Amino acid sequence: xxxxxxxxxxxxxxxxxxxxxxxxxxxxxxxxxxxxxxxxxxxxxxxxxxxxxxxxxxxxxxxxxxxxxxxxxxxxxxxxxxxxxxxxxxxxxxxxxxxxxxxxxxxxxxxxxx
Length: 114
Known about the structure:
This protein is about 0% helix and about 55% strand. By secondary structure, it is mainly β. The protein is globular, with a radius of gyration of 13 Å.
């Protein structure tokens, strides 16, 4: 199983970015998929999760600004990030669950300038 994340970059505060993560290597659909982020010197934290049925969960810090979605036919999860703040700067990782295994993408850098 491989996860390929893309869409990171440099954006000014108040701007938007859309992250994508395509999962491959499984003949089965993935269970929960999600995005996590890790800022320098900090632990990796959950940003948003989405179940195979479309149920979502967000970190309080991103509620109302970020939207997670998925395309089950493509095994791809997206993160639409609006109203970005400097404190959103981090490496963003996607994660996918298949049965009792978790798989991580390589991470994509998001930098928000003030």
